[in-house]
Task: structure prediction
Amino acid sequence: MSQAPQPLGAPVVRREGRDKVTGAARYAAERGLPGCLYAWPVPAAVPAGRVTAVRTVDALAQPGVHSVLTHDNAPRIQEPDDPILAVLQNDRVPHRGWPVALVVADTLASARAGAQALHITYETAPHDVVLTEDHPGLYTPENANGGYPAVRERGDFDRAFEASPVRIDATYTLGALHNHPMEPHASTAHWSPDGHLTVYDSSQGATTVRDTLAAAFGLRTDQVTAVSEHVGGGFGSKGTPRPQAVLAAMAALHTGRPVELALPRRQMPAVVGHRAPTVQRVRLGARPDGTLTALAQEVVTHTSTIKEFVEQAAVPARVMYGSPSSRTTHRVVALDVPTPSWMRAPGEAPGMYALESAMDELAAELGTDPVELRLRNDPADEPDSGKPFSSRGLAACLREGAERFGWHERDPAPGTRREGALLIGSGVASATYPVYASACHASAHAAADGSYRVAVNATDIGTGARTVLAQIAADVLRTPLDNLTIDIGDSDLPDGPVAGGSSGTASWGWAVHKAASALVERLDAHSGPLPDGGVTVTADTTEEAAEGSPYARHAFGAHFAEVAVDTRTGEVRMRRMLGVFAAGRILNSRTARSQFIGGMTMGIGMALTEGSTLDPVFGDFTERDLASYHVPACADVPGIEAHWIEEDDPHLNPMGSKGIGEIGIVGAAAAIGNAFRHATGVRLRTLPLTPDRVLTRLP
Result:
């Protein structure tokens, strides 16, 4: 018997949940193809230079080793748009960890043994991996990531700042961070006798993987199938194709057999991107009543010598607070480091840490409540563009969060609340994230038996996309959820964009909504029984996605955090954390809460435990696994709550939804840093707040 239709927004359980907990869900490295070989990449052991020789005889003598690919014998590919995919094409070593060989064997253990038996010699070159705010190689790029102008000026910042009665001038330093999804980057590749390439890839977008591999191997897109059926997290690092997909396809072509390649955890930091370190100078000028008169955020970051990637950390300052004079800039230096890439809320996460920390410093200087200071500078229109906001729930989030958290009950004086050796403090920070949507295709099918099937090449990276898309379709079709099948995660389905930029549900859902709506119209106009083959309609949102909007569209939120600082050990522990968000219509309350809490937890890691250090001598990241790169465990997150306000925004998409995957991390680290300052009276401007840093600063 079919379930009764559930309203959009209901806490529907994930469709794939049982498959995941029982092991039925198959990931990229779990395909079990007959005759499959296993590959082990060999990373460069020098920070810069070139490979002069690869001696393979000992590796090939290892039991089970099938072949060794190097730049001398690997299949040639077309020059890719993304240079990090041009692996084994020449002898250059642009950074330590760059793939210089690939061992293929009958078992994973044999491949690893073969890799250890390789003898590689290098010609080294001088290297530089250290970012400094005055590096002589710094330059101003034309754009930061996302096409945002690298420099934006409004008014006369220098004059306004100099004339401001109250001023803050602070520099905040963030080291590199790594995504480290639970499932490592993995691919299984297979060439059929007719030359068709199938790749099972741990990716945030199978359509992009298909197109990229087709271009690299000189194929038509219909000669490649990319499957990303289940993906164990990505956080941006799987948003673009990664070298393992190219290497697996190369090895399968070379050997004539399927090849599986799962990147070893310790190799991932050098291959799949990282959040670039930043040095951010923030200057705020204000009147005695707290009204901002001048705002500047100047960002210094690094990229690689392979390609330019500029973390857009100053961009959120163009959105958040009103100020007649503003300067936001990005400068970058190309170093001998792995290419940085997307990491959850790129730009917003590091940029809002610095901006929201500076706002807290301004509140302390003024003797003003930090919540009130933010409310006082909440603009009616977007400062950078002058556009009205489609909706802006920041003030509502701050007020409701303060009420739920008990914010106004705290003693605002720092360092006054003690529990034995523990200092207790609370902090607040705002959050924002832009609304994106990309063109997408989808199909909706009505079968003769009364059931429905919806298809779109969406990717579920653990967010519950299958479930939410089924809810959208079922809502339009006015049918119970168990009467509808949803197909995703295969490039042979209607094309869909990547799961990234918190745009997945908006992009895929828009196309699904359009297809389902067209199917309803077709069925309403149809008389009599459906034909045996049913009825199918397709939808394309290219036109809608390309339309500009007269509105500035953003999600907003507010974080409140309470921490305890142990004056004996220097440990900082998060006691409780509350996030309140304004993100349009919430489409599934269960999966939405999970997404918000997941982002907040990642923010806790950014503030307290996570960090990647570049060794200046060896040129590599020292924290390369989950034993040394400390992501928060359950014990680090004792009390965390996420809520949202009801927000009706008709200027977004047919569902009225905003992205929720990334806003949870934005501002979270700043709230914790601000709580630390309230607890101790000490301001630390470098994350994470580890005991070695804390103990040297405690009174």
The chain has a mean pLDDT of 97. The CA atoms of residues 561 and 577 lie 4 Å apart. The longest strand covers residues 292-304.
